[in-house]
Amino acid sequence: MTDIPHFVLGSLSNLVMSFGAFLIVLTIVVTIHELGHFLMAKSFGVAIDRFAIGFGKPIFSRVDKSGVEWRIGSLPLGGYVRFSGDADASSSVPDAEDLDDLRQQVIRQQGADALSRYFHFKPIYQRALVVAAGPVANFVLSIFLFSIFAMAFGIVVTPPRIGGVAADSAAAAAGLQRGDLVTSIDGHSIHDFKDLVEYVHLRAGDPLNVSILRGGAPQDVVVTPRRVNVTDPLTHRSMQIGRIGAAPMDNPTRLRLTPVEGVRWGAGETWNIVATTVTYLGRIMTGKESANQLSSFLGMAQTAGSVVKDGAESSDNLQGKAVGVALNLLSFTALVSTAVGFMNLLPVPVLDGGHLVFYAYEAVAQRPLGAKFQAASYRIGLALLVGLMLFATWNDIQQRSIFNLLGLSS
């Protein structure tokens, strides 16, 4: 009998760990997202047929006293809430003819009083709130997780005071000096050196108006970050970012936050992720940035695996490794939850944001969009999402994510 080579076992183990970790995170995020829809719908008395996590053949199914089927599918790649009267994805915003057919069917089978329990006959503002509740739930989860970390472990803060300027760098060209305290960039207040670094990363080639205090006196300088190639130490992915060539003077300190401060900080972190994403997408649209940083499930699985490895290597004992892995995965969950919330608000018909656009039209026109237009928009929206997914997957292949997943990176 031939033994399986160790590198093959290691590659399979790495692959299972990465996708297993990613599926755990995705399941948490999707469950919270769908619970947002579910709880808001319940609060308005909407009749619900099913709450499902995963697709395909059910491996668990139970109907509660209210008639809702709780189901776990064999393919853990998403989830959904099915309202009474829904036949398929496109029926979430039926046109006037479909609504009339559904109305007559409900009245014939259950009586006119039953109409008030159907999602499609609820006021527009209630339907919009139900749809928006999914992404909002993702943001709430992110804020909650960030807040818990901030209160339990504190946050690391480094004053934005310049401690060193690299020769022939953008900072040197702008005249920045050791001891300068950066107070704002382009009117955005800077309280942490991390804020300065993150703002600069996505603005290579853009002149930035930097306000500083030098010897207690305010001054303004213009700094133009230069584009550099770097490798992410966690995932080993290469990327291009903006840098000015300045280092902090002071050592970082850890601050413990009160519950109020923690929630405020968590909300700020969530907002920063959204704002950074919007900035990056905007720069892609204007040709200022390459789209090669867009990542698919392959890249996210790679990151999840790297997060697990990093957590496991943070301690020498089993208990410490378990705690490190759990904390890193929860932190990664906060990031993914914010991303899922934001993506679902994009005005693409198959996403929550697209439904909100349809409801906005219905509110103005006093009637739903026509069936033909809706069907065409769904096809276009689906094609856009599939195209984006394929492009992001190609990015991951170019970045050798599949080799990193198998533990074959150099």
CATH level-4 homologous superfamily of the domain at 155-255:
PDZ domain
| Uncertain stretches of 5 or more adjacent residues | 6-10
Number of helices: 11
Strand content: 15-25%
Whole-number mean pLDDT: 85
Q: What is the helix content?
A: 40-55%
Quickly give the CATH architecture of the domain at 155-255. Answer: Roll
What best-fitting shape do the alpha-carbon axes yield?
A: globular
Name of the top-level CATH class of the domain at 155-255: Mainly Beta
CATH topology of the domain at 155-255: Pdz3 Domain
Question: Can you characterise this structure?
Answer:
This protein has 410 residues and is α+β, with helices and mostly antiparallel strands. The chain has a domain at 155-255: Roll (Pdz3 Domain), CATH 2.30.42. Helices cover 52% and strands 19% of the residues. It contains eleven helices and twelve strands. It has helices spanning 6-43, 96-110, 124-153, 170-174, 193-201, 259-285, 297-312, 318-344, 352-365, 371-398, 401-405, and strands spanning 48-63, 69-83, 155-157, 162-165, 181-185, 188-189, 208-214, 217-223, 226-231, 238-243, 246-248, 253-255. A four-stranded antiparallel beta sheet has the order 6-5-7-8. The chain has a two-stranded antiparallel sheet with strand order 1-2. The chain has a two-stranded antiparallel ribbon with strand order 3-12. A hairpin with a 2-residue loop joins strand 7 (208-214) and strand 8 (217-223). Helix 1 crosses helix 3 (124-153), helix 6 (259-285) crosses helix 8 and helix 7 (297-312) packs antiparallel against helix 8. The longest helix is centred in the N-terminal third of the chain and has 38 residues, at 6-43. The chain starts with 5 loop residues before the first helix and ends in a 5-residue tail after the last helix. Residues 6-10 have low confidence and may be disordered.
